[in-house]
Amino acid sequence: MNAMAQPTRMDPAESAAADIVTYDVRDLIATGVQARLVLDGQPYFLRITRAGKLILTK
After folding, report:
1. Cβ atoms within 10 Å, residue 29
2. d(CA 33, CA 15)
3. Number of other residues whose CB lies within 10 A of the CB of residue 14
4. Phi, psi of 3, deg, nearest 5
5. pLDDT by 10-residue block (mean), the chain, 58 residues
6. Do 20 and 8 meet the contact criterion of CB atoms below 8 Å apart?
7. What confidence score (pLDDT) does residue 54 get?
């Protein structure tokens, strides 16, 4: 994951909280089913399951 994913622009009528930045997970996980995210130097892994659910683990 070398490139930063750009937020998805949503029609405010489509979002209950239009002021929240929205990312399409498939853009974050461009190739494969898992992405590594870093928060304060700590790695986390975001994975799409076979059932289409999201799992975030440390």
Report:
1. 18
2. 25
3. 8
4. -100, 145
5. 59 65 89 92 95 95
6. no
7. 95
